[in-house]
Specification:
Mean pLDDT: 91
Distance between the termini: 49 Å
CATH topology of the largest domain: Rossmann fold
Helix content: 25-40%
């Protein structure tokens, strides 16, 4: 019988953590695993639904911001889902879903629990109360986690420095990508792309990122303004999409960079 595996992530928004989760689910052999996913709705819903055999459950009350009522609803639903579907392995992602999901797994009696750290939920720019609260909750969650999977060495060190888990719990597994989905671009292809964009000898400065607050694409636009003031021959290319796209487009216009930007 296939092992029943449940992945939990806070929201199916456009981001590296979400793409990583979907890639894992899409590549698990169906003869060995029955795959489940709990998340709140987001732009990647259709991509999730396209994964063969995936049992997808969308929870609109699973949200990033703390909300005691909605958080308890999400917690009890997860416990019920795990019990009804007889889940054997729970793998959580992101801070909010990671905390709720691991305690739900414990309450439902699941012994094999993994958590992937896609960056910690606490940081120097968070108010001290919430910063301390996240650290305490992460410490407690680590006690009921078999393995803490980090994508960077710095996340492992940050966790240990804050008393989250012990060293042998951590393992480093960097993001994997499907190389076949990326085509290598040689000099001639790059030249054709520049011709397509109407560029000749101009220098091009680029940024490839999800347009979300963590990546701060607005600063890229502001830096572009400073560079353009020094060398007006430089052009700028911003590849990506996300919730900040309208603000980025407005910032480009506000800085009078519409003729110099490809977005």
């Amino acid at each position: 019988m296939p092992l029943k595996v449940l992945h939990i992530i806070t929201r199916l928004e456009l981001g590296g953590a979400q793409k990583n989760v979907l890639a894992i689910l899409a590549n698990l052999p169906q003869d060995k695993y029955e795959i489940h996913l709990i998340a709140s709705p987001g732009p990647l819903e259709d991509e999730a639904r396209a994964i063969p055999g995936l049992r997808l459950k969308l929870l609109p009350f699973l949200r990033r911001r703390p909300n005691p009522v909605l958080d308890m609803l999400a917690f009890f639903y997860m416990v019920s889902y795990i019990r009804i579907n007889k889940i054997e392995i729970v793998h959580t992602h992101s801070s909010k879903a990671g905390i709720l999901g691991r305690f739900a797994a414990r309450a439902a009696g699941v012994k094999v629990v993994f958590h992937t750290i896609h960056g910690w939920g606490f940081h120097d720019y968070l108010r001290s109360f919430f910063n301390d609260l996240y650290i305490i909750l992460e410490r407690l969650s680590a006690k009921i986690t078999l393995k803490l999977i980090a994508v960077t060495e710095s996340d492992i060190q940050k966790g240990l420095d804050n008393g989250i888990g012990i060293e042998k719990q951590y393992c480093l597994i960097r993001y994997g990508i499907d190389r076949d989905s990326f085509k290598s671009i040689g000099p001639w292809e790059a030249l054709n792309l520049k011709n397509f964009l109407g560029l000749k000898e101009e220098k091009v400065v680029g940024m490839v990122a999800c347009l979300k607050p963590q990546k701060n694409p607005l600063d890229f636009v502001r830096c572009a303004r400073l560079i353009a003031n020094v060398d007006p021959r430089v052009k700028f290319l911003l590849a990506g999409d996300g919730i900040l796209r309208p603000q980025v487009e407005r910032e480009i216009k506000r800085n009078d960079l519409s003729e110099d930007f490809f977005c």
